[in-house]
């Protein structure tokens, strides 16, 4: 995953990038960075302003003087890191920046490439020297080595060579570029801000980053599109757009963005996440209700925060058939990061205990339905069920608003190994439920999930983690496309 943001034509571009990254903190918590472009009037040349570091946005940019002394300029790009390829090291923190024959250039990438090994070996054989172990650096080498006469030509050649999932923000001395791969795996949207000197433009992974800036949502960067935002755009409001592939393909939006990763108040792929998740919950209740009586109502609780919205949908439909009460039965500490993101099983298990606590009076002696968005490794779910059992509910029923995750994701989600996925270790829901310690477990069906997400002409979804149907050819020799040097 990761978060990316770009700002063009604003006197305090780096400050806007900072707040946008803060809104997108859920997309990556390992590191953060901002690169700006400004004009050194004394030497009459373009300069980078750069600040990057490990940790959360608030920690990396704790010194606010950075925005006055270092991160100067009217354009900026930013990145929150969530590693799926490459080790967790300072060299891998984005945005990347470099100087080459055509001037200064910077890039931030959200996604995962599927031909990384092939491209890396080819570039090394041509003399390329890599500074990081992440696949994102490949774009820099491809752009720098391109023989195309202009910036858009070099970018287009590079992104056509790379295969897989990529949403990109790129910054040159004269323009901000945004691109999404032909399948459109990862979301990317465009907003506009009116200020005293005209209009500023913002590109971000999710619309919640536009909201924090009071930016007007314009549209998504389309799949298979490279968008150019420059001085002409600032004056006229007109974008220059280029196709990546000559043949316009049907999109393969990552369906897991709707299931889990995006914030519910965001608009991704042109639709509100909140509405989609409510529909997932409603569909799950239609497929797998839990019975109760007036004297013994079903108590429905969410696993916060990503399960909150779907739980409202589930409770609303379940109560049409059975007496049901929606309750807040789990309290989440917001000072602990997402357990799904935390690298390493030991860290993940520990974080469950620090992240949640139960409301005993809500759960004790009750028939409880716990609604969550997904089960990946099962470590979090098992620890959570154990925690809920301490409140002594009479029954615990687990309902999941997605199908079983059975296949590794090659496009940027952090469940890369089949061996890690609990659904591959047991034959059915009953066996998995027994392992987790619940009285019953039911997943949303694949068809139910597909019915819940929006459909439009030219729109499709990648559901490979559930079905094994990969829209782009993958490396058959390994489950994880990482490069550890």
Kindly summarize this structure in a few lines.
With 485 residues, the chain is an alpha+beta fold. Helix 5 crosses helix 6, helix 10 (273-287) runs antiparallel to helix 16 and helix 12 (345-355) packs parallel to helix 14 (379-389).
What would your notes on this structure say?
There is one protein chain. This protein has 485 residues and is an alpha+beta fold. The chain has 17 helices and 24 strands. The strands form 6 sheets. The chain has a 7-stranded antiparallel beta sheet with strand order 3-2-4-1-10-9-11. Strands 5-6-7-8-12-13 form a 6-stranded antiparallel beta sheet. A 5-stranded parallel beta sheet has the order 18-17-21-22-23, sandwiched between helices. Helix 5 packs across helix 6, helix 10 packs across helix 11 (308-318) and helix 12 (345-355) runs parallel beside helix 14 (379-389). Mean pLDDT is 92; it is low at 477-485.
């Amino acid at each position: 995953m990761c978060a990316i943001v770009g700002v063009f034509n604003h006197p305090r571009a780096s400050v806007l990038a900072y707040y946008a990254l803060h809104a997108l903190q859920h997309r990556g918590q390992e590191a953060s960075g901002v690169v700006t472009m400004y004009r050194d009037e004394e030497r009459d040349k373009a300069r980078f302003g750069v600040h990057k570091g490990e940790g959360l946005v608030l920690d990396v940019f704790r010194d606010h003087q950075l925005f006055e002394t270092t991160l100067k300029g009217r354009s900026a790009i930013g990145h929150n890191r969530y590693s799926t390829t490459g080790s967790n090291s300072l060299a891998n923190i984005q945005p990347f920046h470099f100087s080459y024959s055509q001037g200064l250039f910077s890039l931030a990438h959200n996604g995962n490439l599927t031909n990384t090994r092939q491209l890396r070996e080819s570039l090394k054989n041509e003399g390329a020297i890599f500074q990081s172990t992440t696949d994102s650096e490949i774009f820099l080498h491809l752009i720098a080595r391109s023989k195309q006469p202009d910036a858009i030509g070099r970018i287009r050649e590079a992104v056509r060579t790379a295969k897989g999932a990529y949403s990109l923000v790129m910054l040159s001395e004269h323009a901000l570029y945004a691109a999404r791969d032909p399948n459109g795996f990862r979301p990317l949207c465009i907003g506009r801000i009116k200020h005293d000197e005209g209009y500023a433009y913002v590109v971000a992974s999710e619309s919640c980053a536009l909201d924090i800036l009071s930016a007007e949502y314009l549209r998504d960067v389309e799949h298979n599109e490279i968008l150019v935002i420059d001085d002409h755009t600032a004056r006229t409001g007109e974008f220059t757009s280029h196709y990546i592939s000559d043949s316009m393909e049907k999109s393969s939006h990552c369906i897991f963005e709707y299931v889990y990763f995006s914030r519910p108040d965001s608009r991704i792929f042109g639709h509100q996440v909140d509405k989609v998740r409510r529909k997932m919950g409603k569909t799950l209740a239609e497929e797998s209700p839990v019975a109760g009586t007036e004297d013994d109502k079903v108590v429905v609780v969410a696993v916060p925060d990503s399960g909150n919205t779907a739980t409202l949908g589930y409770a609303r439909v379940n109560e049409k058939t059975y007496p049901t009460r929606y309750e807040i039965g789990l309290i989440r500490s917001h000072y602990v990061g997402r357990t799904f993101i935390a690298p390493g099983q030991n860290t993940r298990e520990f974080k469950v205990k620090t992240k949640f606590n139960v409301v005993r009076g809500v759960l004790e002696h009750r028939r409880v339905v716990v609604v969550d968005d997904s089960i990946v490794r099962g470590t979090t779910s098992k620890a959570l069920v154990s925690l809920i059992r301490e409140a002594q509910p009479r029954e615990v029923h687990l309902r999941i608003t997605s199908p079983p995750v059975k296949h590794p994701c090659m496009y940027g989600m952090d469940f890369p190994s089949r061996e890690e996925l609990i659904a591959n270790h047991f034959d059915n829901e009953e066996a998995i439920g027994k392992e987790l310690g619940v009285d019953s477990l039911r997943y949303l069906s694949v068809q139910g999930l597909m019915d819940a997400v929006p459909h439009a002409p030219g729109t499709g979804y990648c559901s490979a983690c559930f079905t094994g149907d990969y829209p782009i050819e993958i490396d058959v020799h390994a489950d994880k496309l990482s490069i550890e040097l």
